[in-house]
Amino acid sequence: MRPRLHGLMKLGNDLVSQHLREVDGQVRAALHGLRRDPRAKALRRRRSAVRGTKLWTVTGVTTGAGAVVVETAAADPGLLGPGLIGAAVLSGLAAVSRGVQAWRLHKEPLPEPLPPPVVLPPRGSVAREPLQRLGEAEDTLRELLDQLTRGAMVPPDSVAEASATGAEAAAALRAVAAQVHAVERAREHAPPMERGHLTEAVRALRGQLDEGLDGYGALIAAAARALAASSAAAPKRDLTDATDRLAALASALRDLSRG
Known about the structure:
This protein is mainly alpha-helical. The protein has two domains: 42-107; 127-259, A middle domain of Talin 1. 84% of the residues lie in helices and 0% in strands. Helix 2 (38-73) runs antiparallel to helix 3 (80-107) and helix 5 packs parallel to helix 7. The longest helix has 37 residues, at 192-228. The protein is elongated, with a radius of gyration of 29 Å. The model is unreliable at 1-9 (pLDDT under 50).
């Protein structure tokens, strides 16, 4: 009974640890969206410009109305009337400036939001380090493709295809990483005679992760070459070729995770 009780206790601890990692991931996702998400930053700039427009408009109307009251009601307004008029003019100019800024910000398309951060496997899992590298690689690819889009350096279809393929490959890699973690957990509860076979399965899956990350890195390198030599045709073809190779690799990884 003791070995079975020990196994149940270990399984319970694993479930609690998994729940804590999920909660931690939710907290980090909220911080991630507040601090790094370019879409959230753009929305904050829009709201700030609108608030500034309203504030300066109200200030201009208030000071203008005050100037009218002073000029019409006061026997000797002195410098108060001209001062209020000047404040109203300056407030009106500021309101127009902020209004133009708000209009421009609303005309600009919103950036794509960052994907939520993925909860990493626990320390000690061979899938943790590849997923950390994948997250960094996704950020790098996103930045490169954004710059290529803003500079119109490659056809928009090529950028869109590279972005979609990168997302597909990342999803396939995370599915394989989930398999790795599941096999690792199963190995802890397996009889000793079965653990060697499961260790080999983990090693093979880790090899698939490394291969997929190499393909993802090739796409990043192609995007970087296209950005560095935007006037040349070869890097643009390299980006298309790298996208095709990564798409094929993502398809193979997807088939592996389903199998």
